[in-house]
C-alpha cells in the first residue's frame, strides 16, 4: 500500500464562516493531529486550496450571483492557520470550483508517487470534500475519509454525506483508526489489525485486534441465521435454562473477567467489581422476566415473536455489563445475535463468548471484531433485522440513517452531558464528598457521570470550596490497586483532548479551580488530573458537549427557573440530579427536566435493572434498555384470534 494525505480547503475564509461544526478551534486541533500522524509516518501530504483572482472573474457562478468574495489570491483569507500550513516540500494545488481533481497536476502527482490509497480531510464535508472523495473513488483509489478531521457549515447535510460516502466510496475512519491501518500496513500483515495500547503504559501493546471486513461480517450473520430458527422455536423455559447456565459460567469466570476490565480499559478495581455485579444483576432480572404470562383479551392472545438476528454494537467503557444487558434479553426472547464489541476490550469479549460456549448458547452468538467501519458493515448487512447500539451521538445518528433506510428497528443509547442541580438548602460539605467520586471515578468515562454542576448563586462559594477539597482528596493510582478511585483515560487521544478542552476554556476566561494537567509520575500512561472549571459560558463547547473525561464545570444559577434552563439547554438528555430538601423543588425538577433519568438526593446514582435506561433528545433513539422494555425491542407482538 502507498498512501497519501489530501487536505482540502484548510483556509481562513472557510474556517471563519459562522456555523462551522465542529468549531474551528476543535477542527484545527483534530486536523493537525492527523497531519502530524501522516508526516511522522512518511505519508506524502498534498494541499488543495481554493484561489480566485483579485477581480473575481473566475469565481463560481453562485459566488458571483451572491456577490461573495473569499479565498482571493494575495489576501490572508486564502491562507491556512499556522498549524496546518504546508511544509516547503509539500505541493499545493489551486482550484476555483469544488473538485480538487479539476487541477490535472493533482492526478499527475499521485500517479508519480504510485499512490493507491488516498486519505482525505478538510472543508466542507458536504461540498468540496464530497467532490474529492467521489472523484478519487471514480479514479480507482481506495479512499479513507478522516471523519474527525472534516467540518461543515451544514452539519445535517454533512452527516448525510458521511453516511452516503461510507456505503459507497470511502472508509470513514477516525485518526486513531487510520493510524492503526497505517501501522498494520507497514507491518505487512495479511489481516488488518488494530494495536491495543495499554492505557497505563502507552508504549506497551496489549494485543493486535483483527479488523473484520465485509466477507467476515457476512459469514458471521449467515452462521447464526439457521440456528436462530431452531432457538426461536424453543420453549421460553428452555432458553431460560441456557441463560441460567450462562449465569453460572459468568460467576465461575468472575475474577478473570474483572482482571481483564482492569487490564484492558484501565478500570479501577472498585469500579470493575461493581460492573461485574451489575452485569450479573441484569442477567438475573432478565431471567426473572422469563415467566411473564401471555397477554390476552376476550377473543385474542398476544404472542411475542423473536425479531430474528440482531446486531449488537457495544462500547469500551462498560465492556461487560452492556453486552450482558443486550445479549441476555436478545437470547431469552429467541433471537440470535451478532456482536461487535469495542476494540479496547477484545480479550474480555472473547472470554465472555467462552462463557456462552460453556452454557451451550454459542451457536446463536457470533463475534465480529473490528472498528467503526466493521460496525457500519454490520449495521447495513442483509440478514440483520435490528440493531442495539451504545456509543456517541454522531455514530448513533449514522447508524440511525442506515436503519431507517433499510427499515430496521434501532435501539440506541448515545451518552449524556448530565447535570447536578444544587440548591442553597443542601448540605454542601456532605454533598461535595459524595459528588467528587461520582464525577471522576473511572476518569469520568461513564455515560451517567455528572459533568455540569448547576449551583444556586447563594450556595456557590461554599460549594466550590468544598468540592475542590473533596476532589483533591481523591486517590489517583494504578487500576489494580483496590484503593484507586481515578485511573487512566482510555487513550492518549483522549488525554490530549482533555488538555485542549481545558486550555480552550482558560483562553475564553474560565477559571480552572484544580487539575487541568497530567499528574506528576503518570506520564507513561493516559492519566489526567480531576479538573474543575468555573465561569464557563453556557454556550461554550465545554458546557455543551460531553467531554467523557475527568472534567466537570460549575455553573451559577440565579434561581430555579435559571437552573432548569441551564439543565435543559444542551442537546443531551440522559440524567438530571437534584439535591434539595424542598419537596416542591423535587417535584418541579421531576416534571420539567428533559432527561430520561431523574435522581433526587441520590449519589452515587443507583441504576435498577428493572427500570428503563434511556435518554431523551439526542441521548437516545428507540426503546430504552432493560426491564419490560427489553421485550418491546427484542420481540414483535402478534395478535392471534381464534373462534
Structure description:
- The mean pLDDT is 93.
- This protein folds into three domains: 3-191, 3-Layer(aba) Sandwich (Rossmann fold); 233-291 and 299-414 and 637-641, Aldehyde Dehydrogenase, Chain A, domain 1, CATH 3.40.605.10; 418-614, Aldehyde Dehydrogenase, Chain A, domain 2.
- By secondary structure, the protein is α/β, with parallel strands linked by helices.
- The radius of gyration is 26 Å and the shape is globular.
- 41% of the residues lie in helices and 20% in strands.
- The longest helix is centred in the middle third of the chain and has 20 residues, at 214-233.
- The protein is built from 22 helices and 24 strands.
- The strands form five sheets. It has a seven-stranded mixed β-sheet, sandwiched between helices.
- The N and C termini lie far apart (68 Å).
Provide a brief overview of the structure:
Helices cover 41% and strands 20% of the residues.
By CATH, the superfamily of the largest domain comes out as Aldehyde Dehydrogenase, Chain A, domain 2
Number of strands: 24
Number of domains: 3
Mean pLDDT: 93
| CATH topology (fold) name of the largest domain | Aldehyde Dehydrogenase, Chain A, domain 2
Low-confidence stretches are none
Question: What is the radius of gyration?
Answer: 26 Å
Largest sheet strand order: 18-19-20-17-16-21-22
Span of the ends, CA to CA: 68 Å
Helix content: 40-55%
CATH architecture of the largest domain, by name, is 3-Layer(aba) Sandwich
Our count of helices gives 22
Q: How many strands, what sense, and barrel or not for the largest sheet?
A: 7 strands, mixed
Amino acid at each position: 500500500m502507498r498512501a497519501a494525505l489530501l487536505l482540502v480547503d484548510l483556509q481562513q475564509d472557510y474556517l471563519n464562516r459562522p456555523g462551522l461544526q465542529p468549531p474551528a478551534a476543535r477542527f484545527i486541533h483534530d486536523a493537525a493531529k492527523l497531519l502530524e500522524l501522516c508526516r511522522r509516518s512518511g505519508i506524502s501530504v498534498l494541499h488543495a486550496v481554493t484561489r480566485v483572482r483579485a477581480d473575481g472573474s473566475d469565481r463560481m457562478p453562485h459566488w458571483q450571483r451572491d456577490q461573495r468574495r473569499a479565498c482571493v489570491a494575495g489576501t490572508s483569507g486564502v491562507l491556512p492557520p499556522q498549524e496546518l500550513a504546508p511544509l516547503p516540500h509539500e505541493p499545493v494545488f489551486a482550484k476555483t470550483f469544488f473538485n480538487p481533481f479539476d487541477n490535472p497536476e493533482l492526478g499527475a502527482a499521485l500517479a508519480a508517487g504510485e499512490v493507491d490509497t488516498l486519505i482525505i480531510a478538510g472543508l466542507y464535508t458536504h461540498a468540496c470534500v464530497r467532490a474529492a472523495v467521489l472523484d478519487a473513488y471514480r479514479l480507482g483509489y481506495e479512499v479513507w475519509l478522516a471523519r474527525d478531521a472534516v467540518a461543515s457549515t451544514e452539519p445535517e447535510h454533512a452527516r448525510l454525506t458521511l453516511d452516503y460516502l461510507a456505503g459507497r466510496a470511502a472508509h470513514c475512519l477516525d485518526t486513531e483508526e487510520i493510524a492503526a491501518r497505517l501501522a498494520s500496513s507497514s507491518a505487512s500483515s495479511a489481516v488488518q489489525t488494530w494495536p491495543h495500547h495499554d492505557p497505563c503504559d502507552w508504549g506497551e501493546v496489549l494485543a493486535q485486534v483483527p479488523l473484520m471486513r465485509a466477507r467476515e461480517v457476512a459469514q458471521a450473520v449467515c452462521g447464526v441465521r439457521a440456528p436462530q430458527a431452531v432457538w426461536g422455536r424453543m420453549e421460553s423455559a428452555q432458553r431460560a435454562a441456557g441463560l441460567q447456565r450462562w449465569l453460572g459460567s459468568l460467576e465461575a469466570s468472575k475474577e478473570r473477567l474483572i482482571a481483564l476490565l482492569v487490564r484492558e480499559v484501565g478500570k479501577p478495581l472498585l469500579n470493575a467489581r461493581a460492573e461485574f455485579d451489575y452485569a450479573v444483576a441484569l442477567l438475573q432480572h432478565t431471567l426473572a422476566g422469563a415467566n411473564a404470562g401471555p397477554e390476552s383479551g376476550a377473543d385474542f392472545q398476544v404472542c411475542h415473536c423473536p425479531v430474528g438476528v440482531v446486531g449488537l454494537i457495544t462500547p469500551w467503557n462498560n465492556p461487560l455489563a452492556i453486552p450482558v444487558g443486550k445479549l441476555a434479553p436478545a437470547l431469552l426472547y429467541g433471537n440470535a445475535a451478532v456482536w461487535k464489541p469495542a476494540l479496547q476490550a477484545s480479550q474480555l469479549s472473547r472470554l465472555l463468548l467462552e462463557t456462552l460456549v460453556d452454557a451451550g448458547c454459542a451457536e446463536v452468538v457470533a463475534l465480529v471484531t473490528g472498528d467503526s467501519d466493521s460496525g457500519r458493515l454490520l449495521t447495513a448487512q442483509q440478514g440483520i433485522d435490528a440493531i442495539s447500539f451504545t456509543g456517541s451521538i454522531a455514530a448513533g445518528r449514522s447508524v440511525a440513517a442506515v436503519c431507517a433506510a433499510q427499515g430496521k428497528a434501532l435501539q440506541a443509547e448515545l451518552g449524556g452531558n448530565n447535570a447536578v442541580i444544587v440548591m442553597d438548602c443542601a448540605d454542601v460539605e456532605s454533598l461535595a464528598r459524595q459528588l467528587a467520586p461520582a464525577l471522576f471515578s473511572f476518569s469520568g468515562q461513564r455515560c451517567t457521570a455528572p459533568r455540569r454542576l448547576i449551583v444556586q448563586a447563594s450556595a456557590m462559594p461554599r460549594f466550590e470550596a468544598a468540592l475542590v477539597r473533596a476532589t483533591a482528596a481523591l486517590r489517583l493510582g494504578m487500576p489494580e490497586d483496590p484503593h484507586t478511585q481515578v485511573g487512566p483515560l482510555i487513550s492518549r487521544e483522549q488525554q490530549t483532548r482533555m488538555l485542549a478542552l481545558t486550555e480552550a476554556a482558560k483562553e475564553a476566561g474560565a477559571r480552572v479551580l484544580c487539575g487541568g494537567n497530567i499528574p506528576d509520575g503518570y506520564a507513561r500512561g493516559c492519566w489526567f488530573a480531576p479538573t474543575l472549571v468555573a465561569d464557563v459560558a453556557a454556550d461554550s463547547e465545554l458546557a455543551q458537549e460531553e467531554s467523557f473525561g475527568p472534567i466537570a464545570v460549575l455553573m451559577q444559577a440565579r434561581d430555579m427557573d435559571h437552573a432548569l434552563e441551564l439543565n435543559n439547554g444542551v442537546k443531551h438528555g440522559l440524567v438530571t440530579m437534584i439535591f434539595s430538601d424542598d419537596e416542591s423543588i423535587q417535584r418541579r425538577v421531576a416534571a420539567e427536566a428533559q432527561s430520561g433519568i431523574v435522581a433526587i438526593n441520590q449519589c452515587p446514582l443507583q441504576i435498577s435493572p428493572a427500570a428503563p435506561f434511556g435518554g431523551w433528545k439526542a441521548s437516545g433513539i428507540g426503546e430504552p434498555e432493560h426491564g419490560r422494555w427489553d421485550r418491546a425491542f427484542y420481540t414483535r407482538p402478534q395478535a392471534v384470534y381464534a373462534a
